Amino acid sequence: MALRRVEAGRDAQSMVLYGLRGVGKTVLLSRFAQLARERGWLVAQIEARSGVTMRDMIGAAFHDDLVDLARPGIGARALKALRTTLSYKASYDSSGTWNFGLDLDQAAGGGADIGSLEADVSKLLRDLAGAAEERDVGVAVLIDEAQDLPHDELIALCSVVHSANQRGSRIVVALTGLPSLPRKLAEAKSYAERLFDCSSIGALDDDAARQAIVEPSQIEDVHWDDAAVDHLVDQARGYPYFLQQYGQDTWNACDHQPITLLDAKVGHTRGQLALDTGFYRIRWDRATSAEKDYLRAMAVDGDEGSASGEVAARLGKKITALGPIRAKLIDKGLIYAPDHGVVAYTVPAMSSFIERQVTDR
């Protein structure tokens, strides 16, 4: 819908998809990127991560699309965008050069290298949007794990989106991240809620979960007993990643059909082991001993969230003394603050995993 609105010359609100780990946010973002590319849009799809700035990632992400754009006979606005991109590249990498195979000396553009993230990104996207408009398409900037962007980059990003909206530029920004993302955007700019359409992505309902298990099997003409499907749906709690893991391990464990309840139980057991040694373990191992103690104290409350004061009481410490540990866990993406004075896991069913790690210190 957003793509069609922009192509028709109308405004389209940028979007934010937020939710716990494993609910399919990245898959949805990648699908959006695919749809945009199929329509000929210029697309930058990046993942926020430590040690790499948004400036660098956006520049690199557009490179391949711009190489495709650089064809003899392209319009003046496209030439302008290419020259602006070269200046933008110079703003973060003076040692590297791009060559689009065209003479850009007489082209307008440039000026995306003044050193201000907001100004440089805004100039880049504005000129790219102009080039896209020559082809009746637009520009999409898609950022996964956006809650990991530094505060100053979130400020700049909100300002860029705000300016693009005011100009009516053909630009759509989509962000995905943890449940803390909308709050971080609001802290960056008070008007962020007007810039983005925020949607919570959660667990599937039972009917959708059953479809996720059964429909791929039908393509292969493989069928399930109802009891087998019900068992996996119940164990996965509607989380897509869990459904995928349990379904895959059930499929691999079974050499007959229909797939039975016993097969599903074997698949669930194997799938849970795979989740414990992969999905959960890689996050658990990122925590220090003191941080694991904090996570264990939270597990008493299950996955619904814990009052910071209660966690401190269980550990026999003051809230202020645990502040740095809490902050580190949030920074590592292991917990988030859904409300003032409350913390919760970012990973579904984390409390159950922790209960299985009672001897791991």
List the main descriptive attributes of the protein structure presented here.
Rossmann fold; single chain; Arc Repressor Mutant, subunit A; 5-stranded parallel sheet
Assign the CATH architecture of the largest domain.
Answer: 3-Layer(aba) Sandwich
Largest sheet: 5 strands, parallel
Distance between the termini: 49 Å
The name of the CATH topology of the largest domain is Rossmann fold
Strand order of the largest sheet: 2-3-4-1-5
pLDDT < 50 stretches = none
Radius of gyration: 24 Å
Number of domains: 3
Q: Could you give the order of the helices and strands?
A: HEHEHHHEHEHHEHHHHHEHHEEH
Helix share bin? 55-70%
Number of helices, where a helix is a run of at least 4 consecutive DSSP H or I residues: 16
The top-level CATH class of the largest domain is: Alpha Beta
What best-fitting shape do the alpha-carbon axes yield? globular
Note the beta-strand portion: 5-15%
Give me the secondary-structure category.
alpha/beta
Strand segment tally: 8
Question: For the record, what is the CATH homologous superfamily label of the largest domain?
Answer: P-loop containing nucleotide triphosphate hydrolases
> Overall pLDDT, averaged?
90
